[in-house]
Amino acid sequence: MQAFVSFITMQFQLCSIFFTFSLGTRTHYFGRTILHGGAKYRATGRGFVVRHIKFAENYRLYSRSHFVKGLEVALLLVIFLAYGFNNSGAIGYILLSISSWFMALSWLFAPYVFNPSGFEWQKVVEDFRDWTNWLFYRGGIGVKGEESWEAWWDEELAHIHTFRGRILETILSLRFFIFQYGVVYHMHAGKESTSLSVYWVSWAVLGGLFVLLMVFSLNPKAMVHFQLLLRLVKSIALLVVLAGLVVAIAMTPLTVLDVLASILAYVPTGWGILSIAVAWKPIVKRFGLWKIVRSLARLYDAGMGMIIFVPIAICSWFPFISTFQTRLLFNQAFSRGLEISLILAGNNQNAGI
């Protein structure tokens, strides 16, 4: 009976979420060491803290080790629900996928669940401002990863430096292309065709999107005398794409669901291309494509950050969630009658005003 009570208490304390997240840390760095070497001490957990950790700092710490993998698992589960699940009903899907959803959500949101004042609206607003400043601040000589996304991104790629590591990264990245191969044959525009031409057409569309990315990644500062022309070209390109999409939906078998399905197909494919490009960084730089790769990487990080940030912002609209989180994290302190609000305020002299 005592063991059962202890187990229930651990669940209320969210120990399962913390353990799942900590296990993801171990798995990531064990895998990186096997692929690239460079074994060293890695912190797999975090001690008791009373200060609020900014969103950008958590993103820097756990983006590649947890968030990318969590989103990949979540995307697989969505595709499984859309195309791979039979007619056993919602209960069957829940029973089959609940453990995977638990792992994915734990990897995505555990750092913010255990972050003091993580759902306090004022903190969330400040975190968003800090994160956007970090994301769009250009790196340079002497700029650290804590100050600029570009500097942080370069640091994250430092472990890929051997030919063996590049080969292994390329092989592992090929798995992302399977998403596209599986999804395009379920689109209405394919008319249930199993011909390889459907797959190659999807790559042609992806090539068009890549050209569009090249247009939008042009730096206005590098074209001082043609800024007006550049803005005009970008506007026309955007309007042409939107008009073409509307015409395609109206005049062809392409449907709105196909457009949503193409997102499930192209997002993993783009990440796979990006992963291969950064693995072969010297060659990509030699072809002069590194700026485009960096723009694509920034776009992906911005998207991943927003996917994680939006639920946090929505939860911060409800004050009782922040109150519940504080009570959960500092339950023993509440029992002892400590002033938690003063501890969380730290050195902020205006906290009590």
Written description of the protein model:
- The chain has one domain (about 50-335).
- The protein is built from 16 helices and no strands.
- It has helices at about 1-10, 15-35, 55-85, 90-115, 120-135, 150-155, 165-175, 175-185, 195-215, 225-250, 255-280, 280-285, 290-315, 320-330, 330-335, 340-345.
- Helix 2 (about 15-35) crosses helix 4, helix 5 (about 120-135) packs antiparallel against helix 13 and helix 7 (about 165-175) runs antiparallel to helix 11 (about 255-280).
- The model has no long low-confidence stretch (mean pLDDT about 80).
- InterPro entries: Glyco_trans_48_dom (IPR003440).
Instruction: Count every beta strand, where a strand is a DSSP E run of 2 or more residues.
Output: 0
H/I helix tally: 16
In whole angstroms, how far apart are the ends? 48 Å
Weakly predicted, low-confidence segments: none
**Portion in helices:** over 70%
Sheet/helix structural class: mainly alpha
Integer count of domains: 1
| Percentage of residues in DSSP E strands | under 5%
Bulk shape: globular
Give a quick account of the main beta sheet: strands, pairing sense, barrel closure.
Answer: none
SSE run: HHHHHHHHHHHHHHHH
Radius of gyration: 23 Å
Mean residue pLDDT: 79
